[in-house]
Design brief:
mainly alpha; 4 helices; HTH psq-type domain-containing protein; Homeodomain-like_sf
Length: 69
């Protein structure tokens, strides 16, 4: 989505062509280009279950368990 947005804004590629080239929904891309959706604050994908600190603790725990056998 970000690459398609940049192609439209920086390279002047039409929205329809960019949506087909980058395989993203045309209306979503058009909304971002027309600033109906702020492209900088919009989060794509799911919200992480753990924050970075929690994830690091889990990884460390798994490493310790693997070392114990």
């Amino acid at each position: 989505m970000t690459a398609a947005y940049r192609s439209v804004k920086e390279d002047g590629m039409p929205v329809l062509k960019a949506s087909r080239v980058y395989r993203v929904p045309e209306t979503t891309l058009r909304d971002r280009v027309l600033l109906k959706i702020d492209p900088d604050t919009c989060v794509m994908g799911k919200v992480p279950m753990f924050d970075q600190f929690q994830e690091a603790k889990i990884v460390e725990h798994f490493k310790n368990m693997a070392a114990l056998g």
